[in-house]
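Human: We require from you a standard protein entry with sequence in single-letter code and fold as tokens, and nothing else.

Assistant:
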Amino acid sequence: MEKIELRACEDFAALERMAARCWHSAYDGLLGEKQVAYMLQKFQSAPAMGEQVRAQGYTYYFILCGERLVGYCGLQGQGKDLFLSKLYLAEEERGKGIGQAALSLVAEEARRRGAQRVYLTVNKHNARAVRAYEKFGFVFEKAQRTPIGEGYYMDDLVYAYRLLR
């Protein structure tokens, strides 16, 4: 496998295009196209991501395999925690070990920032992602259901990865 790299990105229009590509392939079958479109507009549109960076301390990264753009992730520092808000790969890149390599880079970034753990939320029906996180060493903490507007909810599992010093 080619070298995997996280490259900081503030090209929110390009991130929005990548998000749409990844989310529709990952979630249309789980949530339906209407809810996916709503969530993309609310959380992963260029204006939404720009606001997350400016006001909420998020950092977005493109995930590159060699020079090929294969996905993206979003991180938010929260004191001794690093919230892995997003980690998505293009459909054709899944199952190749890229996600595990990207998680290693996220853990490195968390250590660099002085975090003690990385945590994330994952849709409880997204079995492929749950398996990938558990394979890396993330441990289930709790289930949560969060209203996001328009009658929609995020029905998630919270997982955490404790960093070893």
Notes: Residues 24 and 102 are 21 Å apart (CA to CA). Helices lie at 12-31, 33-43, 46-56, 98-112, 127-136. The chain has one domain: 4-162.
